[in-house]
Write a structure and sequence with these properties.
Chain A is of the alpha+beta class and about 220 residues long. Chain A is built from three helices and five strands; from the N terminus they run ααββαβββ. In chain A, strands 1, 2, 3, 4 and 5 form a five-stranded antiparallel sheet that branches. Chain B has about 210 residues and is an alpha+beta fold. Chain B has a domain of about 110 residues: Ribosomal protein S6/Translation elongation factor EF1B (Alpha-Beta Plaits), CATH 3.30.70.60. Helices cover about 55% and strands about 20% of the residues of chain B. Chain B contains five helices and four strands. In chain B, α3 crosses α4. Classes of the chains: A alpha+beta (about 220), B alpha+beta (about 210). Chains A and B meet through α1, α2, β1 and β2 of A and α1, α2, α4 and β3 of B.
Chain lengths: ~220, ~210
């Protein structure tokens, strides 16, 4: 019977790791490598930070030089915007009006021979056109107001002849469809048509009528 | 240098090693808290400030590149307003006399004899009490009364409207006269744009073109 005895004469501190890389080596590499990497990152950070600070100082100096001129141009821009608003408001005056010289000239040529206008009244007034915008994030719709002019036209007259009623209706239709009144009168309505007897020298039967029209709103 | 085996160290050595480790952690912590973090923060603040400033600089440069165009447009705009206002807007002092001059001039040119031109003053407009109170113009109105033929009326209106692109005839009342079929009684209301704020008017009318520099 044979007995094998294994004797280890090495102290634990004298033992060596048998693998490719010792534990001690791995720890050293980790510590020194980590330190080196951290130092590299710090150096890069320092470099970038110094560069940013230098650039900031240069930009501040450029801004200090540019700011007064920029402020002057901003002031000029706001002045231009105020002047343009005045021009816009003034332009609104010419755009909102109806050139009655053209309309009255055309009206004179549209009135049939058998029709006599006894009264013509044009009346314009200011109106507000309210627009509702799209809802904002709180669901509130912002309202904007446009100031406009609107004109109402009233014509009273009389028509003679056997077919006076037809003539009046034709006149109304002409006013509705005449290109010269397009955009000026958007609704033309016959308000009354009745037979009456006049006593101007000799008695005659005529039809008296009233016509009303309304312009679309014209932005001021 | 070999790393000591922790197991082989005696208690005194272990204590020293622990103390060294704690001290090391404290040094690293102090370094991070007192040096690295403030440095990173100041660096970040500088970068943020730089990018904000860069945006401002780019905006300013864009604006400055348009400086001469803005100056030109402002000067043009002032000149146009002054020209229009001198020609077509009644003056602040005694507007009726200016307006009457225009009306009688137009009437004379078409042979209409004006019966009266009466002052209706500044007429209420919806923006007079709204938030657009700062509108530069309010309506100044007069009432014109006359008797004339239809073609003469058209002539008078043509003359008024051609001489002033901004006036607005807001009322025309033409009534036939029974015994004179060619003559009509005419009543008209005409509005002119009138400066709403005398101080603003003076400011605009006295403004010069924008100087260089």
């Amino acid at each position: 019977m044979s007995t094998t005895v294994r004797v280890n004469l090495l102290k634990p501190a004298e033992c060596r790791h048998q693998g490719v890389v010792s534990k001690e080596f791995a720890i050293k590499v980790s510590v020194w490598g980590g330190g080196a990497l951290l130092s590299l990152l710090l150096v890069i950070g320092l470099f970038n930070s110094q560069a940013a600070k230098r650039q900031l100082a240069a930009s501040k100096s450029a801004w200090a030089e540019m700011e007064p001129r920029y402020e002057r141009v901003l002031l000029m821009q706001s002045e231009l915007s105020a002047r343009r608003t005045i021009q816009k408001h003034l332009k609104g005056w010419s755009e909102s009006r109806v050139n009655w010289n053209e309309k009255l000239t055309m009206l004179g040529s549209l009135v049939p021979l058998d029709v006599q206008l006894t009264k013509l009244v044009v009346r314009g007034e200011f109106v507000e056109e309210i627009h509702e915008g799209l809802p904002d994030k709180d669901g509130v719709r912002k309202k904007t107001v446009d100031y406009c002019r609107q004109f109402a036209v009233r014509m009273d007259g009389k028509a003679g002849g056997d077919r006076a009623d037809e003539v009046v209706v034709q006149f109304v239709n002409m006013l509705r469809s005449a290109p010269s009144f397009e955009g000026t009168l958007e609704s033309v309505k016959l308000q009354g048509l009745q037979r009456t007897t006049t006593h101007d020298g000799e008695d005659a039967t005529v039809r008296v009528f009233g016509i009303e029209g309304l312009s679309p709103m014209r932005k001021l | 240098m070999n790393l000591p085996d922790f197991k082989t160290l005696d208690n005194e050595q272990k204590k020293k090693l622990m103390l060294a480790a704690i001290l090391g952690v404290m040094v690293v912590y102090g370094l991070v808290t007192l040096v690295i973090t403030p440095y990173i923060q100041s660096s970040r603040a500088a970068t943020t400030e730089l990018s904000t400033l860069q945006v401002k600089l780019d905006k300013a440069q864009g604006m400055l590149s348009r400086e001469s165009r803005i100056r030109e447009l402002t000067t043009e705009s002032i000149a146009e307003i002054q020209k229009d206002a001198r020609q077509y807007v009644p003056p602040l002092d005694n507007p009726l006399s200016w307006v009457a001059g225009q009306v009688y001039g137009s009437a004379r040119s078409v042979g209409v004899d004006i019966e009266s031109v009466s002052d209706l003053g500044v007429v209420a407009a919806p923006w007079s009490h709204g938030k657009e109170f700062d509108r530069a113009f309010v309506p100044y109105a007069v009432r014109i009364v006359t008797e004339c033929g239809y073609s003469q009326l058209v002539g008078l209106i043509t003359s008024l409207e051609k001489n002033n692109p901004f006036l607005c005839i807001t009322e025309i009342q033409v009534t036939a006269r029974n015994n004179h079929p060619d003559e009509h009684k005419i009543r008209m209301t005409v509005q002119w744009p009138y400066w709403s704020d005398p101080q603003k008017a003076m400011e605009v009318m006295n403004a010069k073109g924008v100087d260089r520099g």
